[in-house]
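lol ok so funny story. i was supposed to be doing the assay writeup but got distracted and ended up predicting the structure for this chain instead. priorities right. anyway since i did it might as well share w the group, maybe its usefull for someone
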Amino acid sequence: MVDRRQVLGSAAALGWTMGRPAFAQSEKNIVLGQSVPLSGPSLLLGSQYNQGARLYFDTLNAKGGVNGRLIELKRLDDAMDPVQSAANTRQFIKDGVVALFGYVGAQPSLAAVPLATEAKVPFFAPLSGAQSLRDPFNRYVFHVRASYFEETSAIIRQASTVGIKKIAVFYQDNDVGQAGLEDVVRALAPLSLKPVATAKADANSTDVGPALKTILAANPEAIIQIGTFKSSATFVRLARQAGFKGNLYNLSLVDTQALSDELGAVARGVVVSQVMPFPYASASAVSTEYLQALQASGLTASTPNYTSMEGFVAAKVFTEAARRAGKGLTRESLITALQSMQGYNVGGMSFEFGPDKNAGSRFVEMTMLTEDGKVRR
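and the output, tada:
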């Protein structure tokens, strides 16, 4: 498991800074602004997402960049706090970034979107599948991952193929958890089904015993978990101790590697839906490219993971849009270029954008955790 010292050490190796330098758009460089958690419980999510993007951009820049211009990714810490995210966004806009890139979490992103919209700055590739970032449609917001509803629907489809009908839901007590519960209800409706039980706990809380008791009383065949890895890991461990042998499903927001590391041998058989290609082996062209970039970077403390893969893919999609926008890249020409990307394939994952379609991917696949800390397809 990558700890805080390893992450910060990797950051130092790449020359990352935690300060607040002046960011200026120039004819030479394409400057992006990224507000992410670099402290607090979500430190790894922010650091890994930034690292994956940097892996791609550093490799690109070493070859001369795009249209003769280098891409700079500037980051500021928001600790997953919407107020700080808004402050960081104002700073980025003031400093003239061409786009806001790779924010983490629904609430920090929702705090930034109105500011980006007012300033007409593209808001690209937030690490969230929340419907609140997709509906209503906003021409300045672009997504490279499937929505949580699409993940939930894929889980329900898989469960139904093996005859599972009694499904319960354990969710974190916040906007994301509530929206996830609604997604499950919506996905079950075409099958004339409803959750047999629902229960909640505070996000990141390990006080999940009452929720588990409520759910097990309904004798579910499967449980869908919508939350972060701390709550979900504790729930899985206690459920297995209580003798539950049914399927345990998680959405990608759980942070797959963190969940696996937290559970250890108890992780066996836990299913996680994914919205990015498999990052642990050369299962696709983009996986191979990602692994080669990671190895070449010399970041020996870092290991492949889905979060940094998402950053890598987001950077690759952004670069293609920048290439199409040409040497005279502006915020508006970037939007036009993104909207022209129909049938663009990064090497195992396709994207379809358009004037009225800013959610480019519907890619979802299932993975299973193993008792020896691995993830398999």
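The first strand starts at residue 29 and ends at 36. Residues 43-62 form the longest helix (20 residues).
back to the writeup now i swear
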